[in-house]
Design brief:
This protein is of the alpha/beta class. The chain has one domain: HUPs (Rossmann fold), CATH 3.40.50.620. It has eight helices and five strands. Strands 3-2-1-4-5 form a five-stranded parallel beta sheet. Helix 6 links the parallel strand 4 and strand 5. Helix 2 crosses helix 7 and helix 5 runs parallel beside helix 6. The longest helix has 20 residues. It is globular and about 50 Å long.
Length: 197
């Protein structure tokens, strides 16, 4: 079994300066531990690309928590890019899998979509790496997410930073930090299908 956490630090230890990292982020709670762990190694920009959200209110509510988190962590210099909320593409591939439980084919396609858009944005805007906070969750398949990331690295020629942020109690730490900064922690992944199942 791959240890993506070790692979990440093997890459980090090759740096002689901070590379530019586009960090796809699903929410502030999941980002909290990730930022704590890696902010000193990268020039980070957060990419809040989540068209899977159930509605614009949920999308905005989760986005607004980033300001609270970054202020609390003294990381207000980190920019958060918020693309326009547009669900059409997500529903085009997700709807046929509406009845599936979280973690199945619908989720796999969603990871692919969000990571691919992140890779394309990173390439177009001269980032050195792209990564995602998704691997902090024990409900997400880190091996699959990393396989997608490496495939996109090959496809677009933009380096992917492997991770398994749940390692070393990363998920537990994200809960502690969420409490510390009084962050809104959602009870479902974000999409209407996970909310209803």
């Amino acid at each position: 079994m791959n240890n993506y956490n070790n692979k990440m630090f093997e890459i980090i230890h090759t740096f002689d300066k901070k590379p530019k990292l586009l960090l796809h982020a699903c929410c502030a709670p999941c980002s909290s531990y990730v930022l704590e762990l890696i902010h000193e190694y990268f020039d980070i920009t957060i990419f809040y690309f989540n068209p899977n959200m159930s509605d614009i209110e949920e999308y905005d509510k989760r986005y607004n928590e980033f300001a609270k988190l970054l202020k609390g962590m003294n990381l207000e210099y980190i920019d958060v890019i918020k693309p326009t909320f547009e669900q059409k593409e997500f529903y085009s591939f997700a709807k046929p899998y509406a009845s599936l439980k979280e973690g199945g084919e619908r989720c796999h396609l969603c990871y692919q979509y969000r990571l691919e858009e992140s890779a394309k944005y990173a390439l177009a805007n001269n980032f050195d790496y792209f990564a995602t906070t998704l691997t902090v969750s024990p409900y997400k398949n880190a091996s699959l997410i990393n396989e997608i990331g490496f495939a996109l690295e090959q496809k677009y020629g933009i380096k992917y930073l492997p991770s398994d942020f749940k390692k070393n109690n990363g998920y537990k730490r994200s809960i502690e930090l969420s409490k510390k900064y009084n962050l809104y922690r959602q009870v479902y992944c974000g999409c209407i299908y996970s909310k209803n199942n």
